[in-house]
Design brief:
The complex is a heterodimer of chains A (about 90) and B (about 425). Chain A is mainly beta and about 90 residues long. Chain A is built from 1 helix and 6 strands, in the order βββαβββ. In chain A, strand 5 and strand 6 form a beta hairpin. Chain A is globular and about 45 Å long. Classes of the chains: A mainly beta (about 90), B alpha/beta (about 425). At the A-B interface, strand 3 and helix 1 of A face helix 7, strand 16 and helix 10 of B. The complex binds flavin-adenine dinucleotide and zinc ion.
Chain lengths: ~90, ~425
């Protein structure tokens, strides 16, 4: 069992967490967003092999946060809270 | 030299001390140019090369494989072959594969050990039975074989299931597909490799594609660990690594890579004569020809390229298995492993030209592309040879993520991939 660190609750078992997508995938704004841009936002993913920056949710407390980890070795280098409520870059 | 496999050639080679067999495929030095290059020597890549040569007469083809052929998911899967999907587009695709599988051993002169022992997808509540009736209707309307099974029917095909009144997942019935079953996964890769080789295809192992050659807005070739190779048409069937190569070609895909694990028990006497899938426990199981119990389950929960699988998922799979078959509690697990699968939001594959002209995709098969190999190969070969879709591959083009015309089999048939 791998341990992830929720910025609010501290170290918890991996099974309490849910993957939420790429960090920096901001929702397009406005009325005239082209279909290609919507498709890109909704479906296209970085899916890197190696260093990854992702949004995760800790299902126990419901908070979303950023996790930096390696998608091959699974080591977690950092987790940050989303304090300003904006999508992280 | 003995090329064809038959009872007579076995007998003849037996007398000659097995000295006359030819290697099943050559290991040629890479050439500088080909008519077509296929990246990935799994089932889909090898089948593509075979159909390019056989159906379209294009044999000046290289299959480039970074490891050894069949060493990816094709050699790691739990070998289930079926076509019990919901949408007509999916049934057309998997139905084509299923029919081709039925004639494949003869066509390739290679025993792929297709064993059509049937498959039951279980229902654990009355509501699931209603959904099963809808699935059976859809399958029958789409022209594939399906039957709605009662508890008694399930008891007949899988008597060792936990039918006790105290069972946590009681059985109400299920969806039966009698033509479903298993096939020897390595044999599918080796059979296609041997047949493609005999038509002139170069199979080049230990050759990793590291970059694309782009000129005039088109893909013109690849850089590899064994030098540069050029072709005007390039196909890519690299399963869990599609996003890695797409990044080198300058585009993204609607894919996340996950580990999918499987495990097998020690071999035992025949005890389970069909494939059993339980969406309730998240487990499916069959018995191999050797007697091992072959066990598969859900995807891992963490996007990953670490080809080993993590423990909480394995624990859930084993717990589900023992709930279904308490007798299996006595078995020893012999091996556990994982493959990296490419998961798409609508659980359907991607077949079509990529955003880089000249580069064609066959990917996104997720947890279920072994059963589709003959179709994936046929369709990618058609695209490479003609530059155009045929009717079966058209709905699976990448453009569905812009038009919104998704083929959501997770909602339709409830499959994970
Ligand atoms: C545990 C498990 C159980 C499964 N069970 C089933 C099942 O029961 N039924 C079913 O239908 N499907 C099942 N699947 C899914 C199925 O195995 C895959 O969908 C299918 O094998 C994909 O075939 P492929 O030829 O596309 O990929 P692969 O067989 O993975 O081949 C891709 C090849 O590309 C090579 N490659 C990658 N990058 C490069 C590069 N840069 N250069 C050169 N080569 C490269 C890889 O080394 C690999 O050999 C399962 C998968 C797993 C992991
Ligand atoms: Zn928390």
């Amino acid at each position: 069992m791998q341990i992830f660190i929720c910025p609010f609750c501290g170290p918890r078992e991996e099974s309490e967490f849910h993957y939420g997508g790429d960090a920096g995938n901001a929702r397009p704004e406005g009325a005239d967003v082209p279909a290609e841009r919507w498709g890109d936002y909704l479906y296209m993913r970085n899916n890197p092999k190696g260093a990854a920056r992702e949004v995760w949710v800790h299902m126990a407390c419901g908070e979303f946060f950023v996790m930096e980890r390696d998608s091959v070795g699974h080591t977690v280098t950092a987790t940050h809270a989303l304090t300003d409520g904006k999508h992280p870059e | 030299m003995t090329r064809r496999y038959s009872a007579f050639s076995l007998f003849k080679e037996g007398l000659a001390g097995q000295t006359g067999w030819e290697p099943a495929w050559r290991s040629p030095a890479p050439r500088k140019t080909y008519d077509a290059i296929i990246i990935g020597g799994g089932g889909h890549g090898l089948a593509t090369a075979y159909y390019l040569a056989r159906t379209h007469g294009i044999a000046n083809v290289a299959v480039l494989e970074k490891g050894w052929i069949g060493g990816g998911n094709t050699g790691r899967n739990t070998t289930v072959v079926r076509s019990n999907y919901y949408y007509p587009e999916s049934v057309a695709l998997y139905g084509l594969a299923h029919r081709l599988y039925e004639g494949l051993a003869k066509e390739l002169n290679y025993n792929i050990m297709l064993s059509q022992r049937g498959m039951i997808s279980l229902c654990h509540s009355m509501i699931e039975m209603e959904i099963a009736a809808r699935t059976v209707n859809a399958m029958q309307i789409n022209g594939t074989d399906a039957e709605l099974y009662s508890v008694e029917d399930v008891r007949r095909v899988a008597p060792i299931f936990n039918f006790s009144p105290a069972a946590r997942f009681p059985v109400f019935g299920g969806v039966w597909q009698g033509r479903a079953g298993t096939a020897r996964h390595d044999a599918v890769a080796w059979g296609y490799a041997r047949a493609a080789n005999s038509l002139g295809v170069d199979i080049i192992q230990n050759c990793e594609v590291t970059d694309f050659i782009v000129a005039g807005g088109r893909c013109r070739g690849v850089e590899t660990t064994r030098g540069e190779m050029r072709a005007e048409r390039i196909g890519m069937a690299v399963a869990g690594h599609s996003s890695v190569l797409a990044a080198k070609a300058g585009f993204r895909l609607p894919i996340n890579s996950y580990a999918l694990q499987a495990c097998v028990s020690e071999p035992v006497k025949p005890i389970l004569d069909t494939v059993v899938l339980s969406p309730g426990t998240g487990v499916y199981v069959s018995q191999s020809d050797k007697g091992e119990i072959v066990i598969g389950g859900a995807l891992d929960r963490i996007p990953s390229y670490g080809q080993r699988g993590n423990l909480p998922t394995l624990e859930g799979v084993i717990a589900g298995l023992l709930e279904m078959f308490p007798a299996f509690g006595q078995l020893k697990l012999m091996r556990q492993w994982a493959g990296i699968v490419d998961v798409v939001p609508d659980s359907s594959p991607i077949i079509g030209e990529s955003p880089l002209p000249g580069l064609f995709l066959n990917c996104g098969w997720g947890t279920g592309g072994f059963k589709a190999i003959p179709a994936g190969g046929t369709l990618l070969a058609h695209l490479l040879a003609t530059g155009r879709h045929n009717d079966i591959s058209r709905p699976f083009d990448l453009d569905r993520f812009v038009t919104g015309k998704l083929i959501d089999e997770a909602a339709g048939s409830g499959i994970a991939h």
